[in-house]
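User: Just a sanity check before I run the rest of the batch. Below are the structure tokens for the first item. I only need the designed sequence back.
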């Protein structure tokens, strides 16, 4: 037990690999930046050798920039304490100038530059370019890292939302079909075993084969066909169901269960409002450039509350998933004309990475 507890404690205390890698990359970047900047700072065409004063002066600047980058920026600037930040920066710059003019120049140039103060403007023009470059690159690095964190967070939120929407679709489907199965069982219909097998096949696909955001298009179409046949059992002689596909290609992928929701609604609303002359047409076509066109039409009678046809939980979910998975890559049109409820969905399919 002790070993497990110690191991768990160590794992909690150890830094995350991503955090360590980020810190290492920043350290290497800052080191290279300081080297390049020092070479520019110390270069003098009249004096090819690097004077010792240039080294200590640059270290003086770098120390001030370090305090600004790793103390003042996180403690004041990023917390929107701008007045305190600029006041502290002013103090640090003043100390840098004071150390250079009153200490370093008196040590290295006691008889020339160390005997006089050139003025605050000249000193600022000497100090500020180095400070601004070092602080500017640090600010840009932090901004880039924050942008990556925001993008990762948005991706995580998107993934969580998609998983939530999927979890709503499966129970919604199961609830409707268990009601149908219950009706057949009460009537002791001979079709009950067939319905159970069909339901089992569909559920197997929904539970095991469509866990990813995108699945192979032929598999999804096969599932949709099985799903249609399952629901067609409840119509029997009361109407006609047609299911037609054209140019279904194996090189494309599609978000699972998107089309299923529309087919499910077609059966649900037709059978709920009509006792005969039920008409359901399903047509799926894929163009050579990977654009899918899905059409689903079903007849209905406006005796019931037809206003809820386009406002169900399933349709709300599928519209949200389309927005998340196919932004600017789909068109959805739903309309009711003369007793026909029509859905037309056009979407650009994802290509199979394999």
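Assistant: Here's the designed sequence for the first item:
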């Amino acid at each position: 037990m002790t070993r497990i507890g110690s191991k768990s404690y160590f794992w909690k205390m150890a830094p995350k690999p991503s955090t360590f890698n980020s810190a290492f990359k920043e350290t290497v970047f800052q080191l290279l930046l300081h080297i390049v900047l020092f070479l520019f700072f110390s270069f003098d065409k009249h004096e090819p050798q690097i004077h010792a004063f240039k080294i200590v002066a640059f270290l003086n600047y770098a120390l001030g920039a370090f305090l600004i980058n790793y103390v003042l920026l996180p403690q004041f600037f990023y917390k929107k304490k701008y007045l305190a930040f600029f006041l502290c920066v002013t103090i640090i710059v003043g100390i840098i100038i004071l150390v250079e003019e009153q200490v370093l120049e008196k040590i290295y140039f006691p008889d020339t530059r160390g005997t006089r103060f050139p003025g605050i403007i000249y000193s600022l023009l000497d100090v500020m370019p180095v400070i601004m470059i070092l602080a500017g690159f640090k600010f840009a690095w932090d901004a880039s890292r924050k942008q990556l964190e925001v993008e990762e967070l948005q991706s995580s939120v998107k993934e969580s939302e998609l998983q939530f929407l999927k979890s709503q679709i499966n129970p919604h489907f199961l609830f409707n079909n268990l009601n149908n199965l219950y009706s057949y069982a009460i009537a002791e219909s001979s079709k009950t075993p067939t319905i159970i097998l069909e339901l089992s096949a569909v559920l197997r696909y929904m539970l095991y084969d469509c866990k990813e955001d995108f699945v192979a298009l032929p598999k999804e179409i096969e599932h949709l066909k099985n799903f249609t046949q399952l629901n067609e059992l409840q119509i029997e002689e009361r109407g006609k169901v047609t299911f037609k596909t054209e140019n279904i290609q194996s090189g494309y992928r599609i978000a699972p269960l998107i089309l299923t929701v529309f087919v499910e609604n077609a059966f649900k609303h037709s059978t709920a409002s009509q006792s005969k002359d039920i008409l359901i047409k399903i047509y799926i076509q894929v163009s050579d450039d990977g654009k899918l066109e899905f059409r689903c039409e079903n007849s209905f009678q406006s005796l019931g509350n037809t206003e809820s046809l386009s406002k169900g939980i399933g349709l709300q979910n599928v519209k949200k998933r389309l927005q998340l998975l196919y932004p600017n890559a789909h068109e959805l049109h739903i309309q009711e004309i003369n007793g026909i409820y029509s859905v037309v969905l056009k979407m650009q399919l994802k290509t199979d990475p394999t």
